[in-house]
């Protein structure tokens, strides 16, 4: 799970996971979604693969990546006990935002 936290720490890798939520995609298609070089995106995919967050398979000359949700479930299980600390803060933040929105009218 430590690898999963490290992999999730980078915004490009989080975006790659979000893209893969819709289904498998080729490395080239994923790379096209970023203003990064293909080798840079490939390195991020390698980190995700090493953390077991994605799987890849070769099909001809292309690599196809898909999401592996098992490590994410472990992260969720670890984070769940901390919900009691951040849920009230999010509720309070939402109330403040609603109050500010109401004062603009």
Automatic annotation (TrEMBL):
<feature type="domain" description="HTH arsR-type">
    <location>
        <begin position="1"/>
        <end position="87"/>
    </location>
</feature>
<dbReference type="InterPro" id="IPR001845">
    <property type="entry name" value="HTH_ArsR_DNA-bd_dom"/>
</dbReference>
<dbReference type="InterPro" id="IPR011991">
    <property type="entry name" value="ArsR-like_HTH"/>
</dbReference>
<dbReference type="Pfam" id="PF01022">
    <property type="entry name" value="HTH_5"/>
</dbReference>
<dbReference type="InterPro" id="IPR036388">
    <property type="entry name" value="WH-like_DNA-bd_sf"/>
</dbReference>
<protein>
    <submittedName>
        <fullName>ArsR family transcriptional regulator</fullName>
    </submittedName>
</protein>
<dbReference type="InterPro" id="IPR036390">
    <property type="entry name" value="WH_DNA-bd_sf"/>
</dbReference>
<dbReference type="GO" id="GO:0003700">
    <property type="term" value="F:DNA-binding transcription factor activity"/>
</dbReference>
């Amino acid at each position: 799970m430590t690898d999963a936290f490290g992999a999730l720490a980078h915004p490009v890798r989080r975006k790659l996971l979000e893209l893969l939520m819709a289904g498998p995609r080729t490395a080239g298609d994923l790379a096209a979604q970023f203003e990064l070089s293909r080798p840079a995106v490939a390195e991020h995919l390698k980190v995700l693969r090493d953390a077991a967050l994605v799987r890849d398979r070769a099909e001809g000359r292309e690599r196809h990546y898909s999401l592996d949700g098992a490590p994410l479930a472990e992260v969720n299980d670890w984070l769940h006990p901390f919900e009691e600390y951040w849920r009230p803060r999010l509720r309070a933040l939402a109330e403040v935002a609603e109050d500010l929105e109401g004062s603009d009218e």
